[in-house]
Amino acid sequence: MVKGDYIYNEWEEEDLRKMKEKIKELKELGYKQVYYDMDYLNRYFYFEIDEEEVFEKWEQDEIGFYKKGAGLKATGADARREKRPNMWFPVFVTNDDNVYVSQNPENSEEVPMEIRDKEFIKVYPITNGQEMRWRWNRDKFNKDANDVIVIRNRDNITLYKKQRPQLGDMPTKKPKTIFYKPEYSSGNGTGLLKDIFNDEKVFNNPKPLELIKDIIKLGSDKNDIILDFFAGSGTTGHAVLDINKEEPESNRKFILVTNNEQNICEEVCYPRMKKLLKGYINQKGKRINRYEENLKYFKADVVNKNKNRDQMKAIMAQKIYDLLCIKENCFTLIEEKPYYRIYSQGNKIMGIYSFFSENYMEEFKEKIKQVKVKEKIIYSFSFTNYVKEGLFEDLKGVELKAIPTRILEILDDLRK
Question: Is there a domain that residue 296 lies in?
Fold first, then answer.
């Protein structure tokens, strides 16, 4: 052992949380560096994949492995023809699915010499009748013609690029420094959102769902809460719902926070979550089944600071119902009075007595007694961190907690 260091690599039967606790403990004892078994971490953080199934999705040509990548028609705010006129031109597709573009710099419509005696179709970058542009210029099409995939659907032809594995990114369970999957294309995020909102473009450049899912799988445990403080279109919430549906042992939860700039919360993020939870009809007319989860929507408010600490506690106690609902995962309101509320969830109730005096306490306790459930939690107003002794001695099997002193202490810490 080197002085100032501590080496601990007996992690075979320890889970990651215990390891983190051990590392923290050792650093508090004064050890400057803590080394741990990286092989164990690689076994903990990995992608759950069926390697045989994944390899079946790869195809091979004379160059090597490839998958279908992004479409070669541009998307997004700068995708229209007028934005880059030189990237509007026909691509000539022959019957054997080879692609060509004109070699004449002055005339993009000129048929290439190689195919003048062949049958071909001219393909333009048009979406819903609007003239768009290609992602590649003509030189790129000529140079990388072997990296184009031709997909025929009735009378339509769509062009995609061949996505080649790079930097050792053939399918593997171990995560790499650089993430690489065709599913991570930003176009997939846009396409999915349009599918949910019936072909309406409601948000520019949403994050790809599969990328966020993989990040969550690598960085969280099955019972963790995922917080996205810049929720945007709500992809993080969608990813958590997907993971919980795909992995029976996953019980992850999410909290999405966003402002309402350009109505993104009211018109995009919340409606997306609502559609996912209720089910929706996609662009092809197919019914997409609902996710078996629940959703609550809260609006943040500002509480002006009061120099009188006791008055501040009385004010805060009236403002924290929703915070406690989130903390205890208890949301169904079954009793509401001006100075107390009672919520239920499954076989649990939560009572919140928020008034600074005991005027309504007996009425509140009688309501609690009437509800027959296994677990009862009571939050009661107190000017200290403790509930007044003896106040609830007639209620058996109840967990008591004081409000709002601890919450104010946390807010004070955040302001530092």
Answer: no
Residues 37 and 59 in one domain: no
pLDDT digits (tens, 9 = 90+) for 99-139: 999 988 889 999 999 999 999 999 999 998 899 999 999 99
Is 47 within 8 Å of 173 (Cβ atoms)? yes
Q: Are residues 147 and 91 in the same domain?
A: yes
Q: Which domain holds residue 23?
A: 5-44
- Torsion angle (degrees, nearest 10) of CA 62, 63, 69, 73: -80
Count how many domains the chain has. 4
pTM for the full model?
0.56
Gap between the Cα atoms of 67 and 59, Å rounded = 6
Count CB neighbours of 288 within 10 A. 13
Strands 91-94 and 99-100 come out as antiparallel
C-alpha to C-alpha distance for 163 and 165, rounded to whole angstroms = 7
Where does residue 276 rank: exposed (0-12), middle (13-18), buried (19+ CB within 10 A)? buried
Q: Tell which residue, 393, 415, 403, 382, has the closest CA to residue 323.
A: 403
Please, which contacts does 78-82 make with residues 24 or more away whose CB atoms are closer than 8 Å?
Answer: 79/127, 79/132, 79/133, 80/130, 80/131, 80/132, 80/133, 81/125, 81/131, 81/132, 81/133
Q: Which residues, listed in sequence order, are joined to residue 134 by a DSSP beta bridge?
A: 73
Lookup result for tokens 């109730």? 349
Q: What is the pLDDT of residues 5-45, one digit of tens each?
A: 444 444 444 455 666 676 667 666 665 555 544 444 444 45
Q: What is the dihedral of CA 262, 243, 288, 258, to 10 degrees?
A: -10
Q: Token pair 């600490």 is at which residue? A: 309
Task: List the one residue out of 185, 194, 184, 213 whose CA is nearest residue 272.
Answer: 194
For residues 406 and 415, what is the distance between their CA atoms, to the nearest angstrom? 14
Q: Are residues 316 and 338 in the same domain?
A: yes
Residue 240 lies inside a defined structural domain of this protein: yes
